Amino acid sequence: MKNFFMKHVERFRKAFTLAEVLITLAIIGVVAALTMPTLITTCQKFITQVKVKKAYAIISQTTRMAEDDYGHVSLWDLDEGESWPIAKKFTETYIIPYLKVNYTCKQNNNEKTCDYKMYGLNGKEYKNIYKNKTFRFYTVDGTFVMVWAFYRSNYSGHKKRASIFFDINGPKLPNVVGKDIFKLEYIIESTTKEANKIGKILPAWIDEDRNRLMSNKNEMCNSKQDGIACLALIYKDGWRISPDYPWK
């Protein structure tokens, strides 16, 4: 009996003490605290990549389907000017019928789902998505789409064009251009060298090289700018958010 007792006492002596257990837990906690932010950011970037590529593919597909019904994009009708009714008519004719739409916003709708503050990478409020000019709606997967269509007959550049902004998660944070808000350009008629892009939906600033896209220039994908060119950067990087992407 004595030998049996001493055998088990010796076993307990070899176990961890309370102090050792607490120190181990403290080390694990420190390591977790240091690595969790990186893991969360990596996860957020991956989710963004997937959602952005999916949204682009879905929106681009509407063009091909609409052309089957209305002919080449250059033949599409667009009233002169830039206003909510013009954007509504264009969107309801050439885009919405070819998407699964969950909800459309009424003109000057002040509900949070249709009108919320958006920011640039520089932290400043982004005010260039005009509520009184953009037709807004949600697709079934929660993507918030804002279409601004205009026609300027006496303009020497892109006479007919639609700018399509989309937020991959609607009013949910961060609501930042380059993180969950992105911009596409839809050229319908143009007199510039970019006329070869007619009928294609492409990221804004797609013609710029990578260095330019990340420079501290107006609308570029830089933490000191609003980040409008970030979609072009993701596009050029093979739908990846690269390590040097200004995510923070």
What report would you give on this structure?
The protein is α+β, with helices and mostly antiparallel strands and 248 residues long. It has one domain (41-236). The chain is built from 5 helices and 7 strands; from the N terminus they run ααβαββββββαα. It has helices at 2-13, 18-70, 84-94, 210-213, 230-236, and strands at residues 81-82, 101-104, 135-139, 144-151, 160-167, 181-189, 201-203. The longest helix has 53 residues, at 18-70. It is elongated and about 100 Å long.
Give a brief description.
The chain is of the alpha+beta class and 248 residues long. The chain is 35% helix and 16% strand.
Mean pLDDT: 88
What share of the residues lie within helices? 25-40%
How many individual β-strands? 7
Counting helices, strands and paired strands, the structural category is alpha+beta
Domain count = 1
Shape verdict:
elongated
Proportion in β-strands? 15-25%
